[in-house]
Amino acid sequence: MIGTERIVHDLSVMGYVEVEVREAAGIKYAILSGFDIPAGSFAGRVIDLAIPVPNDYPRTVGASIHIKASPHLVPLGNIPGLRNVVESGLGGDWQYWSYSFILPAENPTIELLSKINEIFRKN
């Protein structure tokens, strides 16, 4: 199992049973609506989280997360060493947060969600 089939399966095992798969500009996304940020300065905020999913996921991983929140969590812009936030290809309500992810072969989706939660803890 690879690609969106793999991430949707893994996320459902983790308790995220309603994962929408959407494609925009040739990129597939796994979208978690109602994602509760567990820690950091945004703890308790509920957002929509879109994770880009390459066709060969988990061998390769998208280098970003996309966030839809009202109001936005942060303004567009770059803070060196912390975050780079630009407009998302998913539309005007979405922000692209640039990050590089390196995942282990074992339990890659668990590690990916852990790294995403770490991003929120640091911001």
Order of helices and strands: HEEEEEEEH
Instruction: Note the beta-strand portion.
Output: 25-35%
Query: What is the C-alpha radius of gyration, as a whole number of Å?
Result: 14 Å
Average of per-residue pLDDT values: 94
Number of domains: 1
Low-confidence stretches: none
Query: Which secondary-structure class do the elements indicate?
Result: alpha+beta
Q: Count the E strands.
A: 7
Biggest pleated-sheet summary: 7 strands, antiparallel
Gross morphology is: globular
What key phrases describe this protein's structure?
single chain, 123 residues, alpha+beta, seven-stranded antiparallel sheet, 7 strands, 33% strand, globular
Report on the architecture of this protein.
With 123 residues, the chain is of the alpha+beta class. The chain has one domain. The protein is 21% helix and 33% strand. The protein has a seven-stranded antiparallel beta sheet, covered by helices on one side. A hairpin with a 6-residue loop joins strand 6 (83-87) and strand 7. The protein is globular. The termini are far apart. The mean pLDDT is 94.
In short:
The chain has 123 residues and is α+β, with helices and mostly antiparallel strands. The protein has helices spanning 3-13, 108-122; strands spanning 19-24, 27-36, 46-52, 64-68, 77-79, 83-87, 94-98. A seven-stranded antiparallel sheet has the order 1-2-3-4-7-6-5, covered by helices on one side.
